[in-house]
Amino acid sequence: MVSTSSSAGLARHVRRSVAWHRFREYVNGALWVLPTAAALVALAAGYVMSQVTHDPDSLIDRLAFQGTGDDARALLITVSSTVVTVIALVLGLTVVALQLSSTQFSPRLLRNFLRDRATQVVLSAFTATFVYSAAGLFTVGLEGGSRTEEFPRLAISGSILLLFISLGFVVYFADHLAHSIQIDAINRRIERNTRRTIVQEGSTSVEEVPPRAPEWAVPLVGRSSGYIQTVHPELLLPLAAETDVTIGLRHRVGQHVIAGTVIAWVWTVSAADPAPNAAVFEESVLPDISVGFERTIEQDIGFGIRQQTDIACKALSAAINDPYTAVQAIEHLAVVYCDLAVRPLGAKVLHGPGGRGRVVVPGNTFEDYVRFVSDVLGRYGANDVSVMLALVSLVRNCVEVLPPGSPRLAILDEAAVVALADAERAIPRASDVERVRVAVTSVRRTIGVRQGSSAQAGRR
Prior knowledge:
The protein has helices at about 5-30, 35-50, 60-65, 70-105, 110-115, 115-135, 155-180, 185-200, 235-245, 280-285, 300-315, 325-340, 365-380, 385-400, 410-425, 430-460, and strands at about 140-145, 145, 205, 220, 225-230, 245-250, 255, 260-265, 290, 345-350, 360. The protein is of the alpha+beta class and about 450 residues long. The chain has three domains: about 5-20 and about 210-290, Pyrimidine nucleoside phosphorylase-like, C-terminal domain (Aldehyde Oxidoreductase, domain 3); about 30-180, no CATH class; about 300-460. It has a six-stranded mixed sheet with strand order 3-10-11-6-8-4, covered by helices on one side. A hairpin with a 2-residue loop joins strand 1 (about 140-145) and strand 2. The protein is flat and about 90 Å long. The two termini are about 55 Å apart.
C-alpha cells in the first residue's frame, strides 16, 4: 500500500491542478473579472500619466490639455457621468439579449453569453474610462482644499482619448450584439465550442465496454452534490500505478451526483490482495472530480449537443412553430456528429507503466450520441417533414465520412429505420411520408454498399 505521506503529497498536487482548471473556467465565465482588472490598470495609467513632465513647445505639450483647471474638472465630470450612462445602457442591452436567448432558444445558452469575450472587453473599456476620469477629480484643479492651475494636463488628454475609445466601443457593441443574438451565430458558437471539446479529448485509449467493478471493489463516497464538470484521470494514474489498483469512476462527465452516494470504486487485481484504504483514496480521487451546480462545455460533449437539441425542440413548440430553426440546429449537429463518427468514443482507460494500475472514466459511445439525437428529434419533430429529412441528412453525412465496413454503419442504419418509423407514425400527409421513405431508402442503400464493399475486400 502507498504511504499516507506520499498519498497526501499527490493529493495536494491534484488539488492544485484541478483548482487551477476550475479557477480558469470561472474567470472565463465571469463578467466582473476583466472590468476589475481594467479599473486597476486605469488607476496605474492615470498615476503614470500624472507624473510625465514635458517641455513647452514640445510635441507632448501640443497634445496636452490646454484649458484651465476648472475646464479640466468640468471635462472629467462630464466624461464620468457620460460613461456611467453608457454602462447602464450596455448592461440593459446585455440583459435583454440574455432574456431573449433564454426564452426564445434555450436557458442553457446564458453561459455562452456570459463567456462572450467582446462583451467583457467593452465593459472593461467603459469601466476603465470611468475610473480614470473619476480618480482624476481628486487632484485636478485642487490642492490642499484651494484652487490651483497646476494639474497634469497630459493626463486630461488621456481622459479625452478614453472617451473617444468608449464611443467607438458603443458602436461596436451595438453591431456585435445584433449579430450575437442571431440564431446562425448562436448555432455556430455552440458548434465551435463542441468541436473544440472533441478535439481536446485527444486520442486517449478508450473502450466501448469499460471494466466493471468486481465484488471486492472498495466504494468511494462523494462529498458534494452537483454535475460532474471535469475529470483529470491523468493526475490519478501515478497513484493507481504505485499501488497497482484500478480506479473506476461511476458517472460520466455531465451526469448529476449526490453527496453520500458512491462516486467511484477502487479494486485490486484479485480478491486475495489487501483491500485499499478508502479514506486515503478519497483524499486523492475526490479533488480530481470537479463537481459544480451547472454543466459546462469544457469536457462535456453531450452538453453542446443538448444545447443544439434544445434550440430545435424549442423552435418546434406550438408557441414558436419555427421548423426552419430546428433544421438549422440539426445541420450544425451534423458537423459535430461527423467529427464524432471518426473518433474513438467510450470509456477512457489509462494504463500505468508496465501495465500496473488503471484509471477508468465512463463515457458515451457513438451509439449513445446517435440515439440521443434521434430519440429527441423523433419525439418532438416527427410530424414535420423538413425536420425528418434533415435528420436523415445527418445520418447520410455520417455514413459518408465513415470508412467502409465500420461497425458504426449498423448504428446509423438503425437510426435511419427509426426515423422512418417516426415519420410514418406522425406525418399525416402520405406524400410527405414518401419523401422521407425515399431519403431513408437511399441512405440504407449507401450503407449496404459500404458494408458490402468491405466484405468483398476481405474475401479478396
